[in-house]
Each structure stands twice: as C-alpha cells, then as structure tokens.
Design goal:
Number of strands: 11
Distance between the termini: 39 Å
Helix content: 25-40%
Number of domains: 1
Order of helices and strands: EEEHEHEHHEEEHEHEE
Bound molecules: S-adenosylmethionine
Strand order of the largest sheet: 6-7-5-4-8-9-11-10
CATH topology: Rossmann fold
Largest sheet: 8 strands, mixed
Strand content: 25-35%
Shape: globular
CATH architecture: 3-Layer(aba) Sandwich
CATH class: Alpha Beta
CATH superfamily: Vaccinia Virus protein VP39
Structural class: alpha/beta
Number of helices: 6
Radius of gyration: 16 Å
C-alpha cells in the first residue's frame, strides 16, 4: 500500500492510502476528529472516575490518539497504560513529516518516542504514560493477556476494510474491557451498531465531529 502525507482542513496532517481512497483521519480535520471522538467522548468521561486508565487502540497508525491522550493528562494525576495494535506501522520518516507536536519540544520528543520505541515491550514514556505497541493483525490478536477500560476503535472504514468490522472482533473487545468499560469509534453504520449490541454492548449514537453526523460509544454493562 503506497502512502502519502496530506494536510486536512484544520491544518493538521494525515496519511492517505493511495489506491484504497482512504485516509487515516477525516479530511475535515485530523486533530479535530480525534479530539472529538476519542478524547472528548471516550477519555474525558473516564478521567472523571478512574485514576488509572488502560487504553487499547485498534490501529495505532500515526500515534495521534496517543499524543492527544498524553496532552489530556496535563494538570491531572491520571495514569495511562496504552496499548496500540498495528499491523502496518508508520515509518519514522513518515512520522517526522506529521505536524501534530507543533513547536513544543517536549511534545516533539514524546511523539518521536512513540514511533522510535521498540515493538512488543512496555516502555515508560512519562511517569503518567506507559506504552506497549503490539505489532499484530487484529485478526490474529487473541487479547488474552490484556484488559482495558477504554478502546479506541480506529480501523479503516467498513467500505475499505470490511473484515475489521466483523462481530468476532467486537466480541474480543467486549471480553478485554472491564465492566463499565467503553469503546468509541467514528463509525456510525447501522450494521456496526447492531453488531456491537449483539455481543453485549449498550450503544449510544452521539453527534459526530464536523463532516460526520454521528459516532458510536459502546459501554460494557
Ligand atoms: C484509520 S487508520 C487510523 C490510525 C491511527 N489511529 C491514527 O490516528 O493514525 C487505521 C489503522 O489500522 C491499521 N490496520 C490496517 N489493517 C490492520 C489489521 N488487520 N490489524 C491491525 N491494524 C490494522 C492501519 O495500518 C492504520 O494504521
């Protein structure tokens, strides 16, 4: 798959997969979309009730969600245990072209470390942030050793990659979440909503970011 860096409408960069006609984020704004869905509707509500939050991301990609999660910790004591699952990692050269960290040196250092650190080992990037990147396909991932409070479900859309949206994967996410745990995704397709419900989630349709009418938040009862 050939990839190229693009600029989205809020000025933040993203990656386009040539041939698939798919981008890693909304063309309306990568940071805007991730802030709304994963941070606003996923992380923030959990920060009000948990001191340690275990996050599992499907599709680590550019590391944008990990960076925004780290930024959300400012002035809090919350600790994040972050697992990023990724089958086709972004290269360090590609990561260097992404503008998410801005001019802030400590953010740049954190973002660089997200990509430079080894796969499949836990690394402490900050006293409040531990990371393990798992290089594996979701289809091969059993998830037996993991548990999570929050899932960022950020696969390519069902049109481009239907096999990432099969009920068996939602079942895996349901199993690895703790009771009260939450899965958030930008995808609001009716079939995806019904499949999430069929494996046991309670699903809310929430307003989406600009360019997207709705998103989904699924909670394990
Ligand atoms: C929509 S992009 C989002 C990535 C990331 N969350 C971000 O903000 O950059 C989807 C990601 O899923 C990854 N992916 C594709 N197929 C996969 C698979 N079978 N298992 C795990 N990850 C996969 C892609 O390489 C890509 O990084």
């Amino acid at each position: 798959m050939k990839r190229r860096i693009i600029q989205t409408k809020d000025g933040s960069s993203s990656i386009e997969v040539e041939g698939l006609d798919e981008t890693y984020h909304s063309r309306h704004g990568a940071v805007q979309e991730s802030m709304h869905i994963f941070i606003g509707e996923g992380l923030h509500p959990l920060m009000e009730r948990l001191a340690v939050i275990r996050i599992f991301e499907v599709g680590f990609g550019t590391g944008l969600n990990a960076l925004l999660t780290f930024q959300a910790l400012r002035n809090t004591k919350v600790i994040i245990e972050y697992t990023g699952l990724e089958a086709y990692p972004v290269t360090e050269e590609e990561a260097a072209e992404l503008n998410y960290a801005g001019d802030d040196l400590s953010q740049q250092e954190f973002f660089h470390a997200l990509h430079a650190k080894a796969w499949d080992v836990t690394v402490r990037l900050h006293p409040q942030f531990n990371l393990i990147k798992r290089k594996a396909k979701l289809q091969d991932f059993e998830g037996v050793d993991y548990s999570a409070d929050l899932v960022y479900y950020d696969a390519f859309g069902p049109r481009a990659q239907a096999d990432m949206w099969q009920p068996e994967h939602f079942e895996k996410m349901f199993r690895l979440l703790s009771p009260g745990g939450v899965l958030v995704t930008y995808c609001a397709k009716g079939q995806v909503r019904r499949d999430l419900q069929s494996v046991g989630f309670e699903v809310e349709r929430l307003p989406g970011p600009p360019g997207k009418r709705e998103m989904l938040r699924a909670t394990k009862p």
